[in-house]
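Researcher: Before we compare anything, I want clean individual predictions. No alignment, no superposition, just each chain on its own. First chain goes here; please echo the sequence and then give the structure tokens.
Model: Echoing the first chain and its structure:
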Amino acid sequence: MEEVRVAVDGLERLGLTEYEARCFVALTRLPHGTAKEIGKVADIPRSRVYETMDRLRERGLVELQEGEPRTFQSVSVNTAVRILRKKYESHFETVEETLRQMEPVYKENQQAVWAINDYEQVTERVLDLVADATDEILLITFDDILLDGELVDALAAADERGVAIHVGTDDETVRERIADTEIDALVFTSGLVEWFGVTNDTPRIGRVLMVDRGPVLMSALHDENLPGVPNETAAWSDGIDHGFATFAESVLTYELRENATDVGDSTVSE
């Protein structure tokens, strides 16, 4: 059955062995079962069922009723999901704590420009930069598909932290999306923004981000490889000590000074 295969594969990804996953799925399909019954449903040797059940009991996923023969019962699906989620959350906490202990307190900004060749990776970098903002965010974008829910939520969180947010665009859908939120953002257009957005040829500029007059990211949109999935690449620099970032920071700061000077004004500018 397709559902069985999907469930087994999912449990294996969560750390169960193949036999553990197959036995647990088999038990969820039975009110309870002996080793013989479980082995038949799970299609594994009976001799391996007992040791597999012992491991599942240690995980808290299976209960045992002593008798002759011994009978096993899986915990409820809700309980199993809660146990597995808690275990993986603890793994994430351990990994995060360990990595933070190893990370230097201060990472020296490098004079480098980093290339990103995948839309999801570009989005993750954008979200990271927005999350690190403490003073000001300038986002220029020309396609509403690049202003998705995750980015809107990140901008809203930055707004709650008191970060000034400026959005440059010539796209009416982008303007409406910002206007429909409670984000205190100044949305503007300018000759440069209109010039950036004038072409539909590819590659074309996708989004430009500057955070705290420092880190800069610029992306390009290419022809889609998959329908509805942006084909985006980007370059970014984590400081203004590199030619690319120095130039971008100068141009974008000029845009802010000339077109988005009223930081406290949340009204969409015409």
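Researcher: Okay. Second chain, same rules.
Model: Second chain and its structure:
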Amino acid sequence: MAYGWMLNSSMEVDAREINGLDWILEDQWAFYDDVLAAARETGKPFALGGALAWAVYCGHYRNSKDIDLYVPVELKQHFIDAVTKVGASDYYDTLPYDRGWIYRSTRDGCIVDLIWAMANYVRPLDQDYFNGKTTLLLRGNSYPVLPAEELILNKLYIMERGRCDWFDVFNVLYATNGKLEWKRLIAKMGDDAVLFGSALRIFAWLCPGRVKLFPASLWDALGIPVPDSNGPGMNARRVSSLDSRPWFIPTLQPGESLFVRRS
């Protein structure tokens, strides 16, 4: 699959076209298949998030050892009951966690997270999370995927000592070719749109020529200067200056894996 394949945030992707899904072990699939089937059988709305959603937009999967299902807060118990019926238990008994925004279900050492709020409680999940038009055809079934805009929004707030998801944001911005619902994302972030503006300025520094694909009105809406787009589509030196490991998918060489240092 060529990088930058996505032309908009509404499509169906065949999982067989995603690099790295073969890293998921069969014992993981056994649990994931059961949970996804149980989620479908509820008849309630949900959406794939996390590493699977990111893989749909970027074409590469990182085996994070779990999958994320976003569910409406008022329906969370339906999904908790559903995964319990397929033999899952609460991971809290193994390692306590904040149950206010997530239910970590586990079976045979595998994990599926049911998520109904942002981890920082900045804003609730709204209907946009479940109205996306992007789907993943996975092992014979089609599943709704978190919209790219909501995926970006959540990742903008993840900046910890041991983890920063802005690398994921830069990849999604590159892959979606400027075809995002910018106004909706900016309006949803409110005063926190400064985070998005900051990420865009870094992206423009990494990929000056790429921002030509973004609407001119975007910069005014965020109150930031229009970046100089007279440069390459990607500045490899700047990319490697943020992390010498291969993290930006356009720089990956055949056989390379994300965030695995080159030999």
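Researcher: What stands out in the second chain?
Model: The mean pLDDT is 93. Additionally, Residues 148-263 form one domain.
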